[in-house]
TrEMBL record:
GO terms for molecular function: actin binding; adenylate cyclase binding. This is Resistance protein. InterPro entries: Adenylate_cyclase-assoc_CAP (IPR001837), Adenylate_cyclase-assoc_CAP_C (IPR013912), C-CAP_CF_C-like (IPR017901), CAP/MinC_C (IPR016098), CAP_C_sf (IPR036223). It comes from Arachis hypogaea (Peanut). Residues 41-54 have a biased composition (Basic and acidic residues). Residues 1-17 have a biased composition (Low complexity). PANTHER family: ADENYLYL CYCLASE-ASSOCIATED PROTEIN. Coiled coil: none annotated.
Amino acid sequence: PPPASLFSSESSQPSSSKPKDGMSAVFQQLSTGNVTAGLRKVTDDMKTKNRADRTGAVAISEKESRVASHAFSKVGPPKLELQMGRKWVVENQIGKKDLIIEDCDAKQSVYVYGCKDSILHIQGKVNNITIDKCTKMGVVFKDVVAV
């Protein structure tokens, strides 16, 4: 049989006279029904979707400061060479439309860095072609092994 303390007269007293603690107190408050009685109403001006300071327009001064930081970046000397017999390096070519790599094989790779408004012709099969930080750069090739 269960212990005698379960059937004692203390449990017959109303629960409001004895404070409960832990999760039972939380469930007792929820079961009373007036859970949202102490909450305030959220008005339309308090909602983030209706905020006036979030228009989505970007100030012109921010855009100019970002463009100016790129304009002052250091540009090295233009380079088009085969390094260690395995890697073609094309760097800092600006406005060159006649860049040509002729003597290449399937074991060589091509690395293009920092070129602007240029066109590179690769005549032959190379292992891979990597293009890094180039703008308006065109690459014309016949065949490449890897993507």
